[in-house]
Amino acid sequence: MPDIAVQVISKRALARDVVALRLAPYHAGDQLPAFDAGAHIELRLPNGLTRAYSLTNAGQASAPTHYDIAVSADANSRGGSVTVHDKVHVGSRLSIAAPRNHFALDHGHQRVLLIAGGIGVTPIYAKASLDCRSKCGKFLCLSGLFMGVIECLRIEL
Fold first, then answer.
1. Which of 18, 39, 54, 73 could lock onto 99 through a cystine, CB 3.0 to 4.6 A?
2. What element of type H or E holds 86?
């Protein structure tokens, strides 16, 4: 599938050193491909780099009008996160590859354990917010944060 032209329609701070981008079709009338919770897109950046970011708006997965991603500023960035934070703004035109999911959830399970650390938190977020709530009876999510603090969440549905 060829690249998809998108435009940044919003950029906002989610936390210190984390920004959320909302990407919509660049051409009026174009539709974005559907995706499953946990999917990612490859974002082609203005500096020529390509970086993969998980889609966080899983609630819109079947008929998305936009894609949401979260990008953490990395002190050891090789140019991806720094470019997103410093050079990508509302109105920027970018290219993306269609969503792919290497992390599909088997919906046959009644209980699911989700474990993530660092960059793995964003696909887990999408899975926990959509897949597990709608298709699994119970799930437990463990997340190791960047500071080494372990955060434990238990949500019973």
1. 39
2. helix 80-87
Task: Report DSSP state, residue 70.
Answer: E
122: DSSP letter: H
End-to-end CA separation in angstroms for the chain: 38
Residue type at position 23:
L
d(CA 105, CA 36): 9
Select from 64, 18, 15, 14 the least CA-distant residue to 41: 64
Report DSSP state, residue 60: G
Checking 140-149 for CB contacts under 8 A at 24+ apart, the result is: 140/111, 140/112, 140/113, 140/114, 141/114, 141/115, 141/116, 142/113, 142/114, 142/115, 142/116, 143/115, 143/116, 143/117, 144/116, 144/117, 144/118, 145/117, 145/121, 146/118
β-bridge partners, 114: 141
